[in-house]
Specification:
The protein has about 325 residues and is an alpha/beta fold. It has 15 helices and eight strands. Bound molecules: 1,4-dihydronicotinamide adenine dinucleotide and 1,3-dihydroxyacetonephosphate. Pathway: Membrane lipid metabolism; glycerophospholipid metabolism.
Length: about 325
């Protein structure tokens, strides 16, 4: 199965490295010509994944038409740009493996809904889980959820990308895998705030647990299965990104917790913190679904410039309630 990767940020580049194991050829589409040049000339993505020696069988291109002859495409563009990029891509019914973690602002569409609207004939899979790109690119042990309604296709895709250190676990819960990845980014911002404001470890553990309750309430209202949300793409990724400054979302939260304005933290950045764009649209989608998400609401408030003390008070003064989801 010949694979192409759309998007040569850190994660697209790491996934190209996964797909190139065993010297398989992989075509990687990058938006930036300097990324194309660096990968083809020096086998390094010095802008988005510096310091990783890439397989020489990865060929970068800035022409989407170079993907026309491949068997399946991994889509690794940030969520807010997927509609535009897929609109320019000739897909012709080929499988799309969706790897971004977010919800589209304005339309409130999950990435699978954006892809289905652009390419209704293509089978869709979602690859999600606890996966810092630099660790995956370095070949460190990693497990992911690979969700696809077509179980035979999930098996073929898993066989193609699996290795001794990269383990896809198959699922047919596409929505669950997507919601886990999208919501955890927002919750990672909240955990970063706890770190930045020096609120310490009890508070962070409580946010992870209560954030997971929010993720579960929202996911189940949207048709996700609880076991998916409790798996790699939900709880697994939540724990990863809520524990490390390697997470861009967590780091954004650290800055907010230190009192730096969101605008200053987000301006001029080359890399993406998906939770910042997802938080407001998640709040709207939760309202539509009749689901309470106070932590997601708090993240929206902080991103909107509300003072940390007021946001913390609003969370801590909520009425006491039973613990169940
Ligand atoms: N970096 C990681 O460890 C992981 C990232 N992801 C997800 O993968 C997706 C891509 O993130 P990264 O590869 O980390 O990105 P990145 O932050 O490394 O790079 C930014 C990417 O955005 C692209 N971009 C910027 N403006 C664009 C535009 N107007 N149109 C199209 N593309 C544009 C750049 O070309 C580049 O590929 C996100 O949804 C992220 O949540 C998922 C798992 C791990
Ligand atoms: O999704 C990720 C790890 O699974 C990467 O998280 P960040 O986008 O917060 O860096």
């Amino acid at each position: 199965m010949k694979l192409g990767v759309i998007g040569a940020g850190a994660w697209g580049t790491a996934l190209a490295q996964v797909a190139a194991r065993g010297d398989s050829p992989v075509t990687l589409w990058a938006r930036e010509s300097e990324v194309v040049d660096a990968i083809n000339a020096r086998h390094e993505n010095s802008i988005f994944l510096p310091g990783v020696a890439l397989s020489p069988t990865i060929r970068a291109t800035d022409r989407l038409s170079d993907l026309d002859d491949l068997d399946a495409l991994l889509v690794v563009v940030p969520t807010q740009h997927i509609g535009a990029v897929l609109g320019e891509t000739k897909v012709a019914g080929r499988p799309l493996i969706l790897c971004a973690k977010g919800i589209e602002a304005g339309s409130k569409r999950l990435v699978s809904e954006v892809a289905a609207d652009a390419h209704p004939d293509s089978p869709l899979a979602v690859l999600s889980g606890p996966t810092f790109a630099h660790e995956v690119a370095a070949g460190l042990p990693t497990a992911v959820t690979l969700a696809c309604a077509d179980e035979a296709l999930a098996r073929r895709l898993s066989d193609r990308i699996a290795s001794a250190t990269f383990r896809p676990y198959a699922s047919n819960d596409v929505v669950g895998a997507e919601i886990g990845g999208a919501v955890k980014n927002v919750l990672a911002i909240a955990c970063g705030v706890v770190e930045g404001a020096g609120l310490s470890l009890n508070a962070r553990a409580s946010l992870i647990a209560r954030g997971f309750a929010e993720m579960t309430r929202f996911g189940m209202a949207r048709g996700a299965r609880q076991e998916t949300l409790a798996g790699l793409a939900g709880l697994g990724d939540l724990v990863l990104t809520c524990s490390s400054t390697s997470s861009r979302n967590f780091s954004l939260g650290v800055g907010l917790g230190q009192g730096i304005a969101a605008e200053a933290l987000l301006s001029d950045r080359k890399t993406v913190a998906e939770g910042a764009a997802t938080a407001p649209v998640l709040r709207e989608a939760a309202r539509d679904a009749g689901v309470e998400m106070p932590i997601a609401q708090a993240v929206c408030d902080l991103l909107g410039g509300a003072p940390l003390d007021a946001v913390m008070d609003a969370l801590l003064q909520r009425p006491l309630r039973p613990e169940g989801v």
